[in-house]
Structures are given as C-alpha cells and as structure tokens.
Design brief:
This protein has seven helices and five strands; from the N terminus they run ααβαβββαααβα. It is α+β, with helices and mostly antiparallel strands. The strands form two sheets. A three-stranded antiparallel sheet has the order 1-2-5, sandwiched between helices. A hairpin with a 2-residue loop joins strand 3 and strand 4. Helix 1 packs across helix 4, helix 2 runs antiparallel to helix 4 and helix 3 runs antiparallel to helix 6. It is globular, with a radius of gyration of 17 Å.
C-alpha cells in the first residue's frame, strides 16, 4: 500500500474489533511512525505507551468508562506530551502530538489495523487522561492526551463523504477558479 492510499483509506473506526492480537512488531512499527513525525524546533514533546496486556487494558477501560466499541480492541497506544518551550515563549506540544497521531493512524491502516483518535473525552474536566497516566506510572510532568485503540476491524469500514476538493482547496488565492 502506498502512503497516499493509506491516507485515503484511513477513517475513524468506531466499530468492534476481532479478538486477533496485535503483534508487538506491528505496535512498534506504528509507534516508530509516530515518533518520526516532525516536532516544533525538534523538541520531540510527544511520547507513547503501547498497552497489550489484557489486565492492564481492563484497568484503563475501568478508568475511561464505557466506550463501546473501543472496549473490544486488543491493544491501545496512549499518547503523552510535555510542555517544553520551543521558541521564545511558545510550546508546540499540540502540534507535535497531532503530527505523531496522524502518522500512527496512517501506519495502522497500512499494516491492516483500524483505530480512532480519542482525545476530547480524556482531556475534559474530569481528567480521565491523568487517571490513565496514574495507572501507567506516568510522571506528573507528562500529560496523557489521547489514546488509539488498535486492532482488526470486525465490522465493515465506512468512509464519511468528504467535501469536494474545489470547496476546500484552491490555487493562487482564496476560492480562485
């Protein structure tokens, strides 16, 4: 599969997963893709934890609360960030971890797996991300900002309709035709 094909095939999969395990080699490849992403001023603020231990997955799901169907995924990757000043008084941690996540979403598809970017639910006021971080032994100077369930899709993949190219992209100016 080419990179462009993987990008076009990627979708936010919210279906159930088969019980097929995800080999560590595949998780490593997905995480390596994430860590290869660009980062502001090369501060490399994004870090990752893959979880494939069923007991630990159960503990994390207990903290997250019911989130069907991601509860059926045999693995997850948790995304951490650190607030490190990169340029003047600016921190690019959101950019850094977003680029890492997108790379991992594409790599997962290329390797035959599906996933979804879960962030809002765990970074909300109830601080589920911090509770997950505590289960994983993450130091306080790191924030767990996202998790990606990883597995083989048990249901058909659906792709939402995208707006036509010409409604969102132009040449030489805004809405130039």
């Amino acid at each position: 599969m080419t990179a462009l094909t993987a990008i076009k095939n990627r979708t936010s999969y919210r279906g159930t997963y088969t019980n097929e395990t995800v080999p560590r080699e595949a998780l490593i490849k997905i995480m390596e893709a994430g860590l290869a992403a660009p980062s502001g001023c090369n501060k490399q603020t994004a870090s990752l934890i893959a979880v494939d231990n069923p007991e630990l997955l159960g503990k994390l799901r207990g903290v997250i609360g019911p989130l069907e169907p991601s509860d059926t995924a045999p693995a997850m990757i948790c995304v951490l960030t650190q607030q490190i000043i990169a340029y003047r008084d600016r921190c690019f941690s959101v950019h850094d971890y977003s680029a890492a996540i997108e790379n991992m979403l594409i790599a997962a598809v290329e390797l035959g797996y599906e996933t979804c970017w879960y962030e809002g639910r765990i970074t909300d006021v109830d601080k589920i991300g911090r509770k997950m971080a505590d289960v994983l032994g993450v130091p306080d100077d790191y924030e767990l900002v996202c998790f990606l369930p990883i597995g083989v899709a048990a249901q058909p993949i659906s792709h939402p309709e995208k707006k036509p190219f010409g409604e969102r992209a132009w040449f030489n100016g805004f809405k130039n035709i």
